[in-house]
Every structure is written in C-alpha cells, then in structure tokens.
Amino acid sequence: MKLINIAMAAAIAVGLAVPARAEVLRFSSFEPPVAHITKNILTAWAADVSAASDGELDVQMFPGGTLGRNPAQQLKLVEDGVADIAWVIPGYTPGRFNEGTVAELPFLVKNATSGSAAMWALVTSGLLKGDYESFKLIGVMSSSPNGLASTVDMREPSELKGQNIRAPGPTMLSAIKSLDAVPVGGITGPTMAESLSRGLITGTFTQWGAVETFSAGGVVSHFLELPLGATPMLILMNKAKYDSLSDKAKAAIDAHSGAAFSDRFGRSFDAYLSEAKGRILAANEITVIDPDEALTEKWQEAMSVATQDWIAQTENGQAIYDAFKAELEKAEAVN
Question: All domains of the chain, ordered by start, with CATH?
C-alpha cells in the first residue's frame, strides 16, 4: 500500500510540473503561404502573439485556403468558428462593414501606411459600427491605392466606356460605373488573371502586390498609375473565442493589435509594393502610364460623382468621409 501511495504522489508531482497545453488559435488566409501579406505580416504576427503569451497561445496559420479556399468565405469561417482569426476583404461581402468602404473612394488614400492608420483612427473614434462591433478587431487596414491594370491601352476616362472593368469592392465598382464602364463584381484576387486572360474583363482596379501574388503580370499589358481607391482589409477574431481566453492571452493579442497592427501592415505593404513592381516590370512587358496634372484632373472630375453618391447613400457618410480625410492628412504629416 505504501508503494502505491508513493507512486501516486510521484505521478501527481510530474503532472503538476508539466505546463498546461497552449490554446491553439486557427488563423485562416486565402493567400498562398509564400505571398507577402501571409508570410511576412500575418505569420510574423502569429509568432509574436504566441511568444508574448508565455506559452498560453499557439497561433497557427492555415494559408492557401486550407480552411476555406474562397476569399469570400473567410468572414463566415470566423462566424462559424471554423477559423478563430481570418484575413477578410469586406468588398467580397457587400452590405457588411459599409462604413469602411470610404477607403475605396478615389483620390483619397495615397499609401497603405497612412491609409491603415486612418482606418484604425475611425475605429477609435467610434465611427465604425454595426458588423465591426460583432468581432474582436485585430486590424482594420487599407491597401495602397489601386491603379488600373488592363489588357488594352486606356488612358483617358472616356476610353473606359463600355469596357468590362473589375474592382474588389462595391464603392470602386460604383466609381467604375461613373466612367460609363461596365462594373464587374464577384471576381476575387485568385481568379483575376484568368478573367483577364479569357477576356471576361479588360481591366481591373488593383495594385502591384496583387498583380504579383495572383500571377497577373503575364496577362496585363498596361498599368495606369492613379490613386483610384484603396482596398479595405480586416483581421477579425471570433469574439466568443477571444472572450474565453485568459487575461494573459488577451493581453498578448491586444499588444499586437489595433494601431500597432495597422502600422505593421501599412509599412510592410508599402515597402513590398515597390519591390513587387520592380520584379513584375523586369519580367514582363507592361506599359506604365504616369498621367500628368491635366489628365489627373480629368479623372478626378469624371469620378467625383462616386464620392458624392457614397456620402449621400451611407448613413453618417459626410462625418465618416470628413473624419477619414482628416486622419489621412494627419497620418501623412508624420509618415
């Protein structure tokens, strides 16, 4: 009996010495694992949060659509608990996160660093309501501005008339319509190159990073360098999952979220964009069009109705637009 008691005591002591197993958080990305955002921003964030939690969290990446291949599925993955965290493009789920589509308006966002800082400032000011309040917000960001990548030469706004043009969000689609072009939605990043190649679209509002990530460099023949609207992006976490975590685990997530994540994302995205552009142009014959002041003014005038419509059709639209513009100016002054 004495030997049994000693063995039980030893077993209990060993059990107490073993640290508790880390809580695994599943982080979904529709991008390939080697793509810049997934590899250098999201995966690095996951590692930093895991380390900061002192063993309480193990944030694991599931890239390449492992949990759900369609970029439009990512929001539902988080809502259903299939993924705990996901990178979400609001434009793929029209009607959700409407306030943040202000970033899609043309001639506002100049780069991802200031755009992402301004997006998070809208969160802290309480201007992003509705769906934003249903999740733990890890990051609310914007891409750099989208130019026009096309398979035909389109320089003047009038040259888009009747052309099928794709954009990754509803507000940019509205801007396309204002140019008398045919707005084409429902084409996600992974199907962009194929859609251009098959002639389903002759152009798309996009940026150099997406051209590289989704292998569109060999299809595009022209790229018009104008700030035609940025792509809002979100890193969302299932709120119930976050609430279930320990205080230490929550603190590790919080320390690397919000303004800190926006800054990390924006600076990395802008640096990558310049590198991606160089690689694409070195490997492909693409005519880059840099409009002069007169041509830029033509585009601004032609697309101004998109901004007017957005303000009129969005609840509290004028206040959101004014606040976003002010925050952009503030961020640009310090970056």
Answer: 20-334 (3.40.190.170)
